[in-house]
Specification:
This protein has 400 residues and is mainly α. It contains 15 helices and five strands.
């Protein structure tokens, strides 16, 4: 497949490719933060991130170009305020250094172990987003804002509550499993009871996390599953929630009622998917394990089921989001003629009707139409909405 043919294919199947890229990228992030050790999955983090990122870069081109004079996103306006119209962003690397020093100091002086744990990885990735913020060209402002907001949310969901809980208990070496006690074990127990699986939730000696005890159908003794933070699925939920919030804040100029409803629905269903993960793990052990298997099926489900359910949920939700929610994001009226033009010439320049390709510079109009930059400079206006185009390089036609 040649370059032009590949560009045409990517433009014809832009949304499916974006969805594949998102799922692969989030799968890689999930494995980096909470990889199931001892399984083949822990070796897939880097390939998923590299391949997912490459597909995403191809699929969104040339949509990575910003509409000319497009209103700033919610995140862009907020960051503009707190950085005094971006004049203070030069301090981001200094703040990043402070975050790294604070994390390492905490590990050495207060943590039960100086080794880097999952929360440390999240903090250091957040610091990296601060280091790299000013390295992004201005045309990728939304992309850099997305990365920064994503890691800020991830730290707010997964790291800050842990520190607050440890401060509350006045024990910075304490393992805190508040999420498992409050928002996971009781709900999992209730669903299992509804499905006819007898179980109890209780404290377990030597653990701060709750235990869920049940007896498999073909087992001769009770089995207790300790739901610690590391196996609770909170990391998967945090990744999804952070990505979705960052997406909304960097893609929308205002938060309409529809966006708020979709945001709330997405977070609620992500939480439901997390409870479903624990229910599936218990059901696998309840129905398939016996004295001969010695809970191997339950352990296998524990290693793989959560990750598979997480990817399935991501695929479903982002697929619906890309199809349903994105059309309203510009928040402005797009002429019907422009819509028809985009549909008729998907993947092609609206002026010369040639294929859009990463090898040929292109510009996106505020109406969403994409055309070759050279063609726009010659034509002087967008063929879709007839808006006069300024700010593109002037081009002298060949032969003049």
């Amino acid at each position: 497949m040649g370059l032009d043919a590949g560009a045409a294919f990517a433009n014809r199947h832009r949304r499916p490719l974006v969805l594949v890229a998102l799922v692969m990228s989030f799968a890689g992030v999930g494995l980096v933060i909470d990889r199931p050790k001892g399984t083949v999955l822990e070796w897939l983090a880097l390939p998923f991130l590299v391949v997912g990122g490459a597909i995403f870069a191809w699929a969104v081109w040339p949509l990575s170009g910003r509409p000319m004079e497009a209103p700033a996103s919610v995140a862009g306006r907020f960051l503009g305020r707190i950085t005094h119209s971006v004049r203070l962003t030069f301090l981001f690397p200094v703040i990043g250094v402070g975050v790294v020093v604070a994390d390492l100091t905490y590990n050495l002086l207060l943590s039960a172990t100086p080794a880097l744990q999952t929360e440390d990885t999240i903090v250091l990735l957040g610091a990296a987003s601060l280091f790299g913020y000013n390295l992004f060209p201005a045309r990728f402002a939304r992309e850099r804002d997305f990365v920064l907001v994503f890691f800020a949310c991830l730290n707010a969901i997964l790291v800050v509550p842990l520190l607050v809980a440890r401060a509350y208990y006045a024990d910075f070496e304490k393992s805190v499993d508040v999420y498992s006690w409050v928002a996971l074990a009781p709900e999992t127990s209730a669903v299992l009871t509804f499905l006819g699986v007898g179980n109890t939730v209780h404290s377990v000696a030597g653990f701060t996390a709750p235990g869920l005890t049940f007896r498999p159908l073909h087992f001769s003794a009770d089995v207790t599953l300790v739901i610690t933070t590391s196996c609770s699925g909170i990391y998967s939920f945090g990744i999804f929630a952070s990505a979705f919030v960052a997406f909304v804040l960097t893609e929308y100029q205002r938060l309409s009622r529809r966006v708020w409803i979709f945001l709330g629905l997405g977070l609620a269903m992500a939480y439901a998917a997390n409870v479903l993960r624990m229910v599936v793990i218990v059901l696998v052990g309840y129905y398939t394990d016996s004295t001969q298997t010695d809970l191997q099926n339950l352990l296998l489900a524990h290693s793989y089921a959560g990750w598979v359910i997480f990817l399935g949920w991501l695929t479903l939700f982002w697929g619906v989001l890309l199809k349903v929610l994105l059309p309203e994001k510009q928040g402005a009226h797009v002429p019907q003629e422009a819509v028809s033009n985009r549909k008729a010439r998907a993947g092609h320049c609206g002026i010369c009707v040639g294929a859009l390709s990463p090898a040929i510079p292109a510009t996106m109009c505020a109406c969403g139409a994409i055309n070759h930059t050279k063609c726009l400079a010659t034509e002087g206006r967008c063929p879709s909405c007839h808006t006069e185009i300024t700010g593109v390089p002037s081009v002298v036609p060949e032969g003049q």
